[in-house]
Write a structure and sequence with these properties.
- This protein is an alpha+beta fold.
- The chain contains three helices and three strands, in the order E-H-E-H-E-H.
- The protein has one domain.
Length: 71
Amino acid sequence: MVIFSGKPIDAEMINQLLNDQGIVTLISNKLMGSIAPWQVSAGGFEPVEVIINKEDQQKARELIAAFHEAE
């Protein structure tokens, strides 16, 4: 399931955060984000997505919420 969708730099930070906590992730559209970043920005049509297993959803949402509060 997609847990995050947005800019490449944000997706990388979320990906690393989740990996550090033992959540297996997959990043979708990463190559497109490096080739044409204007297309994957918040208003773009192909955002970079962080994908996780459905059973990790609750833990991932809590980690992402804590991450955004700390920013």
